[in-house]
Automatic annotation (TrEMBL):
Pfam families hit by this protein: cobW, CobW_C
Protein name per the record: GTP-binding protein
Transmembrane intervals: none
Family recorded in the similarity comment: Belongs to the SIMIBI class G3E GTPase family. ZNG1 subfamily.
A GO cellular component entry from the record: cytoplasm
An example molecular function term from Gene Ontology annotations: nucleotide binding
Reaction(s) catalysed (UniProt annotation): GTP + H2O = GDP + phosphate + H(+)
Domain CobW C-terminal: residue ranges: 230-317
Amino acid sequence: MTDRTIPVYVLTGFLGSGKTTLLRRLLDDAKSRGWKPAVLMNEVGEVNLDGIMVDASVPMAEMLGGCICCTIRGDLGVELTNLAKEHKPDVIWIESTGVAQPLEILDAVTEASMYGKLELRGVVTLVDARHLLDRLRIGSGKTFRLMQDQIRVASLVVLNKTDLVGEPEKAELQERIAEWNPAGNIVSTVNAELDPRIIYDEPAANFETGHPHGPHDHMESHPHHDHDHVHVFTHYLHGAMDSHAFERFLRELPEGVYRAKGIVTFRDTANRYLFQYAYRETDFLPIRPQKTVHDVAVFIGEDFSKADIGSKLEKLSGRTE
Ligand SMILES: Nc1nc2c(ncn2[C@@H]2O[C@H](COP(=O)(O)OP(=O)(O)OP(=O)(O)O)[C@@H](O)[C@H]2O)c(=O)[nH]1
């Protein structure tokens, strides 16, 4: 396979936390680097007000009238795939509605990576400092739990609107965020002002990208971050595998992997298969794709070694280099 993998980043955070503010910065930054970005926006309402705020020259897909993670989840894959095919961007940003369940979004994005060469590289969670402080004081409730969930899955937490809280409160919030997500990075901002390099320098052990101007060419190894929070590992397979060996590999996946899925070809079967793995259960569905799909395996979990899984798969698919 010669075509490159497009890195995908998810921007999440509760309503009004500063996602669009950050997105605009990231798009400006991408432009100044000579990258071609694309954006997928999801609004709960029927009108995409955030989209109006974004430079009209940026390719953008909109998913309106629902939340990515529930009502229109299936469309996410289609939209992402279309964006990638049509515009061949260097990077895709997904701005999700402020009420989305983050794990569901990750699931949907990884689903999409089965149909095109896309790889989720980071989840950036915006937090409204004052809002979180208020919720902390109350200490319960649906919004509080959602904010916590959004923080937990982040590779980077942006504690935004710190101009609206005092220094001691800011320190308290940082401490709590670090408790909920010990491995994620935290940055405190006003108007989401940050150096985008902290986003792109997030570790990723799987490197398919060979694009000279892509965001990740310089980041081959940060193994110390390899195993520390909920993360997604996408591995494109290079050849057919033995079905029994692959089943054994799934059975022996580390505890930390709680979800895996993908498309595989076996040497010893006639069909290709869509495989699913969830809570140690596996399922294989024979498929006959109408269009070209790559063999790929996606893993979601905590505390597992991407490098280890990657090298096992390389062996299974007969790649020796
Ligand atoms: N005081 C203050 N206001 C901010 C800061 N960052 C963003 N804002 C303002 O907060 C409002 C919401 O910001 P957005 O970037 O639209 O937030 P969002 O997360 O995209 O909002 P939704 O799309 O509704 O979920 C805007 O009016 C911003 O100008 C900050 O650090 N401090």
